[in-house]
């Protein structure tokens, strides 16, 4: 037998998490991506172009909004929102996608594919593809195409092909599987614009770097506004990209608690949730070793959430390290708690948040009540709620399942609480 | 154990080995084992015993559909070992093809020990590259099991050398860039990949992805040490109106494939 060649050390680890658990066919593409990316981030032509796009296209820096009327429901703590919802395309997703689209051009590839749950990442990818003249195909679970029909229409208007995935749970997990399949077959011409901080190395690290701008801006903005650092930073965690983006600049600030809010769905004890840190165990899914909802045979368990964007059985590997090291905390928020926070922010501040972001707001309500009036809580408002209007209107009984406007519940104005598809589901 | 002696024996006969894939648990655990035993009787040299998995990113719709139905039917990971014992008893090599998470969850050392105890020859791991496989390589070496890693048309010379140097049994050459599934032609990429892989290893090289007929098996058998057939076999079972007609179609196809590898180099 020949002498074994020296094997490269495993790359892209966050402690024991991360890695590259993908077919060999994709390894050269991942190596190319890493090489091109590492050169680009130190190339002023690349960083300058990305900065110009952020300033003139995305709308960065995004602002900070203090929300005193909402804060009355948070134990009186000061609550500040980092307004990623005001970015072009309506969420933080554009930060990452513009970076990856520019890298696609640098790699000489002409086609991008993406997966999407709530549709925000798909819309952002379709937008960047239109801007840079790239062909774009977006995979989306069939169930998600139905609950996020508006975003499907947006992607198609932007020129993207949207492929409904009918396998498995027909949600984000299955869209990711399908995107991987496409990528294996078309890797020579195609870049997979992965939408969050998971997947094989270098995606978790690279996507984080594209989102670090959130925390860099927010930390300075809070210092300017309050004169000190926040006590807590709250962010929702599906794959975890908006959370890692805002957390990262605060990692060395020991006084700042970093709290990620997962989708608790109908409650962790119900089994219908996406609370990976509460109910998952370490394993491999979609290219990374991280926390995964799985059964005792290692089969992925389907997740559930009122929020399509958080409805995912795995989580970024860097979050797994932050959790195991104790640097960040993760809590589940139920659908009911998230929708109550959604309603409160709309009614008290005139802001409709994405239902994903409403999980972070619900976390702020919990933490504010725990910490009291002297606390300063920074919440990453990762996206706006336009895409979720149908879901929310159904939840609160303002429309029926066919989308028909119903009479105000109880003859009032919707304050009566969840109706329609609410928590009884 | 190892499949090397089987491939060597085929080589001595002047032909490529025929390797057939079926998933455990479809249409049932007993039904899948019956089908695997039939594969051996009809001329398969090595059975690739598939572990159904919820997220099979390397598989096309035919195998994914069978895996989903197997999981819905209640197949368990431990059923794999019953299939291994049956294949071994039928007289063929028994390699398990599995995505990595089920093994990880079961326990790498425990899986290796149980596989060896059942008479298995080793593992084919489509989403585990050698770079990430230190635990598996250690366990496989301890239990004398084959480590079948994959190479692809996109693999660089450096990757081919690194991957093959960690392989044991044979090297799995994926004939096309894509997922599993029968194709009308295997294409030139397969032969090119085999030639490039032979330049860096003495291990047998078996070609999979896309082979579905005796004629294709004959073509591939001219340049490869083994011909791997999966989706075409699975389709015999998924498209059959009755289990009996599925087994008949399966037997007919395997005999055609077995004849194909036997005329490959004549």
From TrEMBL, chain A:
SUPFAM superfamilies: Tryptophan synthase beta subunit-like PLP-dependent enzymes. It comes from the Bacteria. Residues 60-383 form the Tryptophan synthase beta chain-like PALP domain. InterPro entries: Trp_synth_b_CS, Trp_synth_beta, Trp_synth_beta/beta-like, TrpB-like_PALP, TrpB-like_PALP_sf. Keywords: Amino-acid biosynthesis, Aromatic amino acid biosynthesis, Lyase, Pyridoxal phosphate, Tryptophan biosynthesis. The modification N6-(pyridoxal phosphate)lysine is found at residue 93. Pathway: Amino-acid biosynthesis; L-tryptophan biosynthesis; L-tryptophan from chorismate: step 5/5. One of its GO terms (cellular component) is cytoplasm. Its EC number is 4.2.1.20. Signal peptide: none annotated. It catalyses: (1S,2R)-1-C-(indol-3-yl)glycerol 3-phosphate + L-serine = D-glyceraldehyde 3-phosphate + L-tryptophan + H2O. It holds the Pfam family PALP. It is an enzyme of class 4 (lyase). The keyword Glycoprotein does not apply. Residues 402-425 are annotated as: Disordered. One of its GO terms (molecular function) is tryptophan synthase activity. Its cofactor is pyridoxal 5'-phosphate. Belongs to the TrpB family. HAMAP family: Trp_synth_beta (MF_00133). PANTHER family: TRYPTOPHAN SYNTHASE (PTHR48077:SF3), TRYPTOPHAN SYNTHASE-RELATED (PTHR48077). The beta subunit is responsible for the synthesis of L-tryptophan from indole and L-serine. Tetramer of two alpha and two beta chains. This is Tryptophan synthase beta chain.
UniProtKB/TrEMBL annotation, chain B:
GO terms for cellular component: cytosol. The keyword Amino-acid biosynthesis applies. It is an enzyme of class 4 (lyase). PROSITE patterns: TRP_SYNTHASE_ALPHA. Belongs to the TrpA family. The gene is trpA. GO terms for molecular function: tryptophan synthase activity. CDD domains: Tryptophan_synthase_alpha. PANTHER family: TRYPTOPHAN SYNTHASE ALPHA CHAIN, CHLOROPLASTIC, TRYPTOPHAN SYNTHASE, ALPHA CHAIN. InterPro entries: Aldolase_TIM, RibuloseP-bd_barrel, Trp_synthase_alpha_AS, Trp_synthase_suA. This is Tryptophan synthase alpha chain.
